[in-house]
Amino acid sequence: MTRLPKWVDVALIPFINLLLALIVSGLVILYIGESPFEAISIMVNGAVGSTYGWGYTLYYATNFIFTGLAVAVAFQARMFNIGGEGQAALGSLGVALLCLSIPWPHWIIALPFAVIAGVVFGAAWAAIPAYLQAKRGSHIVITTIMFNFIASALLVYLLVNVLKPQGSMAPETARFPDGTHLPNAYDMASWIGLPFSRSAPLNVTFFVAIACCILVYLLIWRTRLGYQIRAFGQSEKAAVYAGINPVKITMITMLISGGLAGLMGINAVMGEAERLVIDPVQGAGFVGIAVALMGRSHPAGVFLAGLLFGMLYQGGGELEFEIPAVSREMILVIQALVILFTGALDNMIRMPFEKLFARAGA
Amino acid sequence: MDLGTIIPILDATLRSATPLVFVCLAGLFSERSGIIDIGLEGKLLISAFFSASVAAMTGSVWIGMMAGIVASLMLSMIHGLASITFRGNQLISGVALNFLASGITVVIGETWFGLGGRTPQLSGSGRFAPIELPGAATLADVPVLGPVYSDLLSGHTILVYLSIVTVALAWWVLFRTRFGLHLRAVGENPESVDTAGISVVRLRYMAMVIAGVLCGIGGAYLATGLAAGFVKEMSAGRGYIALAALIFSKWRPWYALMACLLFGFLDALGNRFQNMELFGINIPTQFMQALPYILTVVILAGFVGRAIPPRAGGQPYVKER
């Protein structure tokens, strides 16, 4: 096996993969009878052409950074946490319960507790699959998929039967009290005297997401625990031989992963909707898979990939608005192709490159 | 509960179990050959869409089903390419294909029909018609046996009966033919199969083809037998339920049928009763919907009969040099 130069591994190959995904997506748009170039220009303009666009792009990116980090941390230990969707839903529930149960005087006090609630609920939902993987050998992919469905049923049950205010028809909680209102981009921009779109949902949680990127970097590459997680992911046998406890590492990694996914609830529930609705996660848990793959499971990569997918989601919304023939589900197609090319068909590009560099090196 | 309540529920059980059976058997062949298939849901969905669309265009449900099978086969081949040829991550490939199916069905559906992701309502030869079993009318008046035969067993579409036949066939192929032996071996220990001079790659692609065809039939039933047309996301997690049934059955065909019938029964119960009282406790319908998943986790946990998957599942095979 030849080692590829680093720039080929972390930049060139992901770029080619992304390009392939975009080319195939372009062909789909061409088939529909629209111009792919016009579509791209609408998407880019819609995503970053105004403060309104940026406000949505960064709002989506915040969600995807949390769920992407969740998947990435698990990937470091060579585990595939496909349950970000359920963990984020439970995290949202935790945040909602916290916001509704205490009359918070100010968001500065509420936010740290919301972080704890999101982490604890998200981690709790990851704990059972983690325990079953560590102790009973049940495949974590299957159990986390099952837990996604159980989470969604649980949330529907709670909203319909328990949390819905009396006399209300819609299956959602009451609006959170004002003391939990997180400053949005408009508020923050006006503190420093800048104009920003009033209606964009970007809020202070974005900075929590950046902090999480830094913390995850420090954890994985600068602590003993992070070293153990990576060692476990590289070779379980070698890790065990080196005295690393596999049960402990599996549990801790999944709890961190679930906790990160749970944090998404702050952005979506406390920051945007200000109430708990029936599907607060909206597929962001799955987008996290694509984000972690594109970002090569590195926090910096996850941040950039999160941004890219934020643009894709916001731009895709605009695309449907401008060209009604292209439905919003086009985003799903692009997302699928990105996962397919960067995740599953990676070797299709990698193998020829390895041959090329082996020949050049020989 | 009397017979008049039980028969319609069992009748609905049979109908909702049918797509599960096809998809579960697809997963069975795939996983027995060592390829984990999370993409069952996507194959089911894409086949449902193409079956309904082509049936709507041609007016023939059979041509529709062929189109569904071809679409499902294409996803299957992409999965094969990713997981066999390029030795990629099978789980990730499955996830990607599920997204691809849920996106592309709406994008193309909107272009073809402009109905917000639906296909036109199917009727007549565009759907599978119910089949009256011989003597159903004459036996109808016989107490107990009559309603069971003519209301419960008779009057389903051909695919419902085909699903039972397919279970028998799957069992026969897997456990009574040379191909089945090779297939099971390749999922447990591909090296041994390779040593015996049999192509691992070819066997696994064969399994992918079978899985594609079976999901195709399941999807066709979903959109043209169970329903009268395609609606967005109509597979509604059935692919995952089938995956659960596969684990529940510990990768064995007849048990798979039982598991699908059980999950179909839960589905039918949930549709029939919004709220159920059992031993004085009110059971919410959401619990009924989550029950297949909860049961699967319990089985996976190994507290009630351990489920051990095929040993080589999920690992790409690299030939020794």
Keywords:
heterodimer; A: 362 residues; ABC transporter involved in vitamin B12 uptake, BtuC; 15 helices; 0% strand; globular; B: 321 residues; mainly alpha; two-stranded antiparallel ribbon; two-stranded antiparallel sheet; 4 strands
* Topology pattern of chain B, helix = H, strand = E: HHHHEHHEHHHHHHEEH
Structural class of chain B: mainly alpha
Counted by DSSP, the helix tally of chain B is 13
Number of helices of chain A: 15
Q: From the structure provided, what is the oligomeric state, counting identical versus distinct chains?
A: heterodimer
Q: Report the CATH C-level class of the largest domain in chain A.
A: Mainly Alpha
Backbone shape of chain B: globular
Distance from N terminus to C terminus of chain B (CA atoms, Å) equals 66 Å
Biggest sheet statistics of chain B: 2 strands, antiparallel
**Number of folding domains of chain B?**
1
Radius of gyration of chain B, in Å, reads 20 Å
Report the CATH C-level class of chain B: Mainly Alpha
CATH topology of the largest domain in chain A, what is it called? ABC transporter involved in vitamin B12 uptake, BtuC
Q: What fraction strand of chain A?
A: under 5%
**Structural class by helix and strand composition of chain A:** mainly alpha
How many DSSP-defined strands of chain B?
A: 4
Percent of residues in helices of chain B = 55-70%
Secondary structure tally: strands of chain A: 0
Note the beta-strand portion of chain B.
Answer: under 5%
Uncertain spans of chain A:
none
Membrane topology (chain B): Multi-pass membrane protein
Protein name (chain B): ABC transporter permease
InterPro entries (chain B): ABC_transp_permease (IPR001851)
Transmembrane segments (chain B): 69-88, 95-115, 158-175, 205-231, 251-269, 290-308
